[in-house]
Amino acid sequence: MKANRSDRPVIRPLPVMDRARQVTDALADYVEEARLQAGDRLPAERELMAALAVGRSTIREAIRHFQALGVIETRKGSGTYLLKPVSRATIHMPLSFDAAHLRDALLQTLQVRRGIECEAGMVAARRRTAKDLVVIEEKLNAMERVHLEKGTSGPEDLAFHLAVYDATHNPLFRQLLEQMRETFERFWEHPFDRQDFARRSFPFHRTLFNAIAAGDAEAARAETLKILDIVEEDIKEMSK
């Protein structure tokens, strides 16, 4: 007995591919093929419109997509610039949460950072190279010098931690942690208008470096926890 035609599955026409998605893929391919690096300028809006045969709104939608991912930035009167290399194969994991209350947002971020930063310290202790140690110590020395001169060292502190993340040789550590820290960049210089924010953690940066240099992953984890515990205590104390 022949099957009824009405019982057969329906083959539906393929949807038209989203034009903005096509543009983002094309831009990612261009960045990869042109070997653009962070700081390089992308083609102008009109040039992209002509090359891709799409309208201004489609180009701008694709640009906004990459801006939201932190891949590019548009500078008024200058153009659009690449913040980090990207390709069609790049995996993007944007982060977002309601940061209406600074204290709660910082504590929520710190909860996540604690796990990731401890792991980063342990991985750095296992995988760091001699070159990595030179860079980390350079950043540490700069941090200590500025801290002793001014009593605070926000940018230098961040540079030290970024060097530790780089020593893991896993780019996700730096990208995830830097994104969380950048969210509150204006507060890391003088959090809660206090120059002494987390000042008590200063000595543990040297002991963290020593643990990484010794290849002691557990010690690196312990020293990282000491730093973050002080940060948590100061957030709670200074935000009362």
From TrEMBL:
Q: Which domain of life is it from?
A: Bacteria
Keywords for this protein: DNA-binding, Transcription, Transcription regulation
Q: Where is the HTH gntR-type domain?
A: 17-85
Q: What single Pfam family name could you report for this chain, choosing any that match?
A: FCD
GO molecular function terms noted in the UniProt entry: DNA binding; DNA-binding transcription factor activity
Entry keyword Transcription? yes
User: Glycoprotein as a keyword?
Assistant: no
Would you tell me the protein name for this molecule?
Answer: GntR family transcriptional regulator
- Taxonomy of the source species: Bacteria, Pseudomonadati, Pseudomonadota, Alphaproteobacteria, Hyphomicrobiales
